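User: Reviewer 2 asked us to show a designed sequence for the structure in our supplementary figure. I'm pasting the structure tokens here. Could you produce the per-position amino acids so we can include them in the response letter?
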């Protein structure tokens, strides 16, 4: 079995054909809170980003993969970010794009696949995630895969006129 292929989905590199899919996600104001986005992205900027997406994770310090179900539908994105080979750690974040694909096990399988990839191929010692304290679905997802809450960043993000806490989760290699 390939590292990035599961029973329900597989993870693949970004392609030029993903322009509209990424455009819709990046310009969806309802998820700006989790992506720390504050302004819309143009198709031109996303096209440039896709043209440079071939960079190796050791060079770019990040890797964005598309989550594709077995019907060949792009259903979300999973990112490795702030890759730090010296300290052997990497951050992870994921997003299921449409509600009809949520609560079907896609997020759990994608997170499991990308963690296995990070531990096996990138040789990291830990994978971590920053999750809004009120994002219970994500907290449950990460905890179901043995991520441990190790701290709370108080008043970390300022959203819709109020400060919100962010919870820091970590999974250490076994």
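Assistant: Here is a per-position design you can include in the supplement:
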């Amino acid at each position: 079995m390939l590292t990035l292929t599961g029973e329900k989905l597989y993870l693949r590199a970004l392609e030029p054909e993903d322009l509209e899919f990424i455009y819709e996600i990046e310009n969806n104001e309802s998820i700006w809170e989790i992506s720390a986005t504050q302004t819309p992205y143009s198709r031109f900027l996303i096209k440039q980003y896709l043209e440079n997406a071939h960079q190796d994770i050791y060079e770019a310090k990040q890797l964005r993969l598309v989550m594709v179900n077995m019907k060949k539908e792009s259903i979300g994105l999973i990112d490795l970010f702030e890759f730090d080979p010296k300290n052997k750690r990497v951050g992870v974040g994921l997003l299921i794009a449409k509600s009809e694909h949520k609560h079907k096990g896609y997020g759990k399988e994608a997170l499991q696949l990308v963690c296995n990839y990070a531990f096996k191929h990138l040789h990291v010692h830990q994978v971590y995630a920053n999750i809004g304290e009120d994002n219970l679905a994500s907290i449950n997802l990460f905890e179901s895969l043995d991520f441990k809450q190790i701290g709370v960043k108080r008043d970390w993000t300022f959203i819709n006129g109020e400060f919100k806490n962010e919870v820091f989760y970590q999974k250490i290699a076994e």
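For the response letter, you might also mention the following. Residues 9-126 form a domain with the Aminopeptidase fold (CATH 3.40.630.30). The chain has a mean pLDDT of 90.
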